[in-house]
Amino acid sequence: MDHLTRLTTTEGRNPVSEGLDQLTTLEVLRVMNDEDHRVPDAVARQLPAIAAIVEAAVAGLSAGGRLIYAGAGTSGRLGVLDAAECPPTFSTHPTMVVGLIAGGQQAMFQAVEGAEDDQERGAEEINALHPGLHDVVVGLAASGRTPWVIGAVRAAKQAGAHTASVCCNHDALISDEVDLPVEIDAGPEVLTGSTRLKAGTAQKLVLNMISTATMVGLGKTYGNLMVDVSPSNEKLRQRAVSIVVSATGCTRDQAVIALHEADGHAKTAIVMILLDMTAAQARERLTTSGGAVRAAVDEDHPHN
Question: Is the per-residue pLDDT at 4 higher than 50?
Fold first, then answer.
């Protein structure tokens, strides 16, 4: 028996794809697609554990803390991507959701050999952020044993931060290091050991859940509308107009006028229209409601 079959899930050989180099192009794609279907079910089995991370993040960020991802390789890149997409989507400050990758910024674009093996460096990079009681640090490691990530979560825990992990093996080393572990086992990869495939997809799905559900909990949505969008380009400005129209039932012209008076802030424009008030009054209303549109308008519009 090949020794790889005795290794962890992320390093094991997949019997379905053993003849991968002998398949037609369509057959290769079919095998990949069939295996990819396993990922959502594997994620579903971990929803309670993922929910625990989200609830910790909502509580921490509400108190002024941060959501910090720390990963290496594909896992690290996915964390940086998720963090980078929060400011334009939810108007978060760039320091609210942070992505750290072993090897630094260069590692986003090319492999930095040996970076993921440096446990002390992982601790140093987390400590440079001065983690505290309200921070939630999520270690991302497909294998669940990456030294740089282990060092990062250990340092975060020692500093008093809440710690979590997302990996793709059962009984992973990192799970013993954190408060809130998530283990997603979608089976071995189609290409043995290439964790940018199913493991990467699983981690991307989980990161989507963590950041989006956290922002919902922070009042950055109204229904399923991303009302805290930052209208930083023409596409997003038009999206802000559409969001105001969808949230209020007003015309596009009314939405454009309200957004202009609200300095492009969709939440303010929505409250202005729904409660028939000025931008200043809407801002004050949002301040007292903690920035949540629903809390701002429900008192007067209980069926919104």
Answer: no
